[in-house]
Structures are given as C-alpha cells and as structure tokens.
Design goal:
With 196 residues, this protein is an alpha+beta fold. It has one domain. It is built from 6 helices and 11 strands. A hairpin with a 2-residue loop joins strand 9 and strand 10. It is elongated and about 50 Å long.
Amino acid sequence: MNQDILYQRAGACIIAMLIAAGAQAGELHRPQTSHVHGSAALNIVADGAVIHIELISPAANLFGFEHAPASEAEHTARKNALSTLENADRLFRFNKTANCRAGRVEIGSGSTPPVQATGQEAHRHDGPDDDEHADARHSDIMAIYLFTCDVPGKLDTLQVGLFGAFPGIDNLSIQYITDGKQGAATLNSSEPALTF
C-alpha cells in the first residue's frame, strides 16, 4: 500500500476511533488539548499493524518560547527542537516483541505548513514567512507519527521519551485505542511508560 494512502488512512482512523470510543462510553474523552504550559496531549490509535500517534503541545514546552524567534539562540532552540521532534524512535519506543518501526513524521502549527520527514530524512519548510505568521499570543505544535509493527498482537507497552527530550513537558494526557482495548492515562517524568 502506498505510504501516503496509509498515512491518510491512519489519520482518518484516529478521529473516527476516538469518536466511536466516546460514543460507546457515552461521551468523548479526548485528552486535554487546551493551551496549558507544561501539559501536552497524545492520541494513539492502532489499526492492525499501523500505529498512529498525534502529539499536541504548546510551543513553549518544546521551544522554550511561543513567539517568532527573535535571536540566534531562539532560532537555534527552535531548529534543535524540530530536529528532536523528527526523531520518532527516540521519542516513542514500543516493546521489542512487537517489532515496530518509525515511518512518516509531520510537524506543524496552526500557522506553519507541516514539516515532513520519513525516517531520519526531514523535508522542512523553513522559509521566512514561517516565523512572520506565528501566533504571537499562543502557539501550539502538532506532530503526527506513523509506525508499523510486524507483530501488532504483541504490542503492550510504550516508553515515552518526551520528558527527557523536552523538560518543558510536565505531564502528558494520553488516550489510546488498540485492537480490542481503549483507555486513557496521564504520564510524567517519574512514570514515562504506557501499558496498553
């Protein structure tokens, strides 16, 4: 199956599955997605061998600021944070028996076109307009990750490396749907592992 089609299917599945899970429970329990510094949200949907992860975080948690970079240090901080966000294998480690591999990564904000990466190859749009159109009040970053697992039936844990990579993230609200299971959890640097 074409990687683009697979990615689009996973994106549509995450929305549909979260809505279906909410309908079964009587309401939608979407993780906190309001703009709260220190907090971020993670949505995870497993659709067969495909794992789709959506990270939503205030830019301040990732870059250390929300405004357009004004100094060389801020430009460097933003560039380094984007590079870290592209490293899916560092940020998300599934249990080895599931044999999961990172695939496509997209990173963007409400005003910035997505950054696309496949594996370690990043295709960025870092033009001069990116910073000019950033929201000066509050800026959120969304990163979408696609993994494929050879043995999805063995998927049982996920180690989240976001806390070590981004000290600005204090807690992570998670909602997940896997084959036959759904749930929610809150992780922090003391408890960075999710058990499905």
